[in-house]
Every structure is written in structure tokens, then in C-alpha cells.
Design brief:
With about 180 residues, the chain is mostly beta strands. It has helices at about 30-35, 165-170; strands at about 1-5, 10-15, 20, 25, 45-50, 55-65, 70-80, 80-85, 100-105, 110-115, 115-125, 130-135, 145, 165. The longest helix is centred in the N-terminal third of the chain and has 6 residues, at about 30-35.
Length: about 180
């Protein structure tokens, strides 16, 4: 796997190094040794799967506050998504900056989201399946969110979200 650190410290685009033959394709999705060598906390506490029926479904922005901040490694196994990661670490040089990625079943890329950052994704087609590893267990009392169109960040989405949960659409402005 190739770990490409992004402009937000601790956020990586992870490119697989697949092996293919007449049977199909094989790739590693996680390797504790390689993650650790790249400074990524690899103590997985929880794995989640998100299946989304329709294109333009938005999930997020979600994060957990200290001491339950979680790192996440996210992959799109079926379909395609547009994911935005925003840095919410007050002491970070990139505080309140964001970066975006397209993840899909063809490029097989993953992203690692550092603890203290939030992410959201928009499905770009029907029937998207997303898998992610988390370094913390879900803690409802620590859960927080940011609205996808919060004016504090000026997020640029490739399409207007059409399906958003009541919880996600009703987050207050970050500031």
C-alpha cells in the first residue's frame, strides 16, 4: 500500500498495490504493520458498513469529541462517493481547512481520517457500499456534527445533496 499524506496532517490517501490474474484481483485493505509505520493508529475498535440506496445521499459531517476522538479509514467497495475531510483540531496549522476525495470501486483507494477531523460523503451513484475502520467505539455522548453547507467552511460539493437525515440537516453552524 502507498500512503500519501495530504495537506491536513494525519490524513492519508491510501493506494492499494493489487495483484491480479485470471481469477480476479487481490489487495490488502488493512495491514497493522504498514499503518503503524506511517504513524496511523491501528488499534481498531469498531468496523462499520454503510449501504446507500440512492445517488446524492449525504452522510455527515460526523466526529467525536475528546477523549473519544476517532481515527477512521474509509473505503468505497461498491459505487462511488465524494468525501470531504475537515480539520477541527484547534491547535493544527490547517484548522478549519478541508480536502476532498473521490473513492470508488475502480480506484480502490481508501482515506485515513485523523482523530480530530470530521468527514462527510455524498454518494455519486445508486447502491454505494462503504466500509470503515474506527479507532474508537461509538460514544453517543461524544458525537458531534457539522452541517454539509455550514458557511464557516464553504464546502464545494459536486452535486446538490438530495437525501439527508434530519439529524445531519439540523446541525447548528460550527462557529
Amino acid at each position: 500500500m502507498k500512503f500519501n499524506e495530504q495537506k491536513l496532517a494525519g490524513v492519508y490517501l491510501i493506494e492499494p498495490e493489487p495483484f491480479s490474474d485470471d481469477r480476479g484481483l487481490f489487495r490488502r485493505h488493512f495491514c497493522q504493520k504498514e499503518f503503524s509505520e506511517n504513524g496511523i493508529i491501528s488499534d481498531i475498535k469498531q468496523c462499520n458498513v454503510s449501504f446507500n440506496n440512492a445517488a446524492y445521499t449525504l452522510r455527515g459531517f460526523h466526529y467525536q469529541e475528546s477523549p473519544y476522538e476517532e481515527g477512521k479509514t474509509l473505503s468505497c467497495l461498491k459505487g462511488s462517493i465524494f468525501d470531504i475531510v475537515v480539520d477541527l483540531r484547534i491547535d493544527s496549522d490547517t484548522y478549519m481547512q478541508w480536502t476532498s476525495f473521490e473513492l470508488n470501486e475502480k480506484n480502490n483507494h481508501s482515506i485515513h481520517i485523523a482523530p480530530g477531523c470530521a468527514n462527510a460523503f455524498l454518494t455519486l451513484e445508486d447502491e454505494c457500499l462503504i466500509h470503515y475502520y474506527c479507532s474508537q467505539s461509538y460514544t453517543p455522548s461524544a458525537e458531534k456534527g457539522i452541517r454539509y453547507d455550514d458557511p464557516s467552511f464553504n464546502f464545494k460539493w459536486p452535486f446538490k445533496p438530495e437525501i439527508i437525515s434530519d439529524r445531519d440537516i439540523n446541525h447548528l453552524d460550527y462557529k
